[in-house]
Amino acid sequence: MARRPTPDAWERILEAAGRLFDTHGVHAVGMQQIIDEVGVGKQLLYREFPSKDALIVAYLQYRTRDWQGVVDGARERADDPAEQLVEIVRSVQRSTPGTRGCPLRNTHAEFPDP
Fold this sequence. Notes:
This protein has 114 residues and is mainly α. It has six helices and no strands. The protein has helices spanning 7-24, 31-38, 42-48, 52-76, 81-95, 103-110.
């Protein structure tokens, strides 16, 4: 039975991939850069993410869950829809200092229509 990395290792891989993708772009980052950044073995990375595409999908799903949490929390802090929208924008701004935009949008921009 294959071992799963600890949740901490899984998260470290996705966080490091995100930092590199944000800084250099998805196409410019190689798997070896992620291995070097995280300090995990090549076998662990490729067992969990058999391809770069699999890693990209996992990263985007991971970020989507984060963003959904931010949006849900913001909506709970306000009753009026207009106030909810303002709170969502403020919450996103607070939760993503120094980013270079939406990871979903940035990744989409690097992949032309199939």
